[in-house]
Amino acid sequence: MKRKIAALCLLISLLCGAAVWMQAKADSPAAYTAEDIFGRSEQAILYIRILREDDSVKATGTGVILSPDGLAATAYHVVKEASRIEGTLRDGSVVGPIEVVAVDEQTDAAVLQLPALKSGPAGGYAFLPIRETAVNFGEQVFAIGYPMANTPVITEGIVNNPKAEVNGRDRVLTSAQIASGMSGGPIIDRFGRVAGIISGSLRTMNNIHLVIPLKEVRSLLPVVKTP
């Protein structure tokens, strides 16, 4: 009789454990492949051009749209001292002028406001959700940006360090490959959420690149609610 009771207790324990595991799995967001990440993100990635008075291009970079009304994030050094900013969406449409609404020179974060859409989806701009929590050691991430005019690329890597002090600033370190022109673009986690903004590369280490922690960007975005 004792053996039967013990076996019954074990069975109940296993069933309860399985139920908890299945519920946890059901509550976890879906993880995406690199192909999925690019497909879900490309419309929200902005090719940024800094223009001179004669309309020639002074500098280029990348930005990411974070809300349907056109709030976007980029790196401060991309738009520093810019007199006129235009952006090109993935479908080729040009938006501008773009306004710089908030910057933090120390952290290299900047927030932009795109003009209201004159045409397109009634819901406004395509955008990416922003992540609430910090990234972790070894976490898979993706970088998307424009190292070539109107030609986006996606790279894949891991978080080498979620909080490293570099020149007096907290930085996320990642092995996702970064090239010139990708500054200001997003680092995206495997669930499709913006997890940081590309800032540059670490010259003392090959293939280690610098990312602005999302908390620094979020501090400039009081009106953006994280999902």
From TrEMBL:
PANTHER family named in the record: PEPTIDASE S12, PROTEASE DO-LIKE 8, CHLOROPLASTIC
Name of the featured protein: Serine protease
Coiled coil: none
Organism per entry: Paenibacillus filicis
Leader sequence segment: 1-18
Annotated Gene3D superfamilies: Trypsin-like serine proteases
Pfam families attached to this UniProt entry: Trypsin_2
Keywords associated with the record: Hydrolase, Protease, Serine protease, Signal
Single GO MF descriptor: peptidase activity
Family: Belongs to the peptidase S1C family.
Keyword hit for Protease: yes
UniProt keyword Transmembrane helix, yes or no: no
Listed GO biological process terms: proteolysis
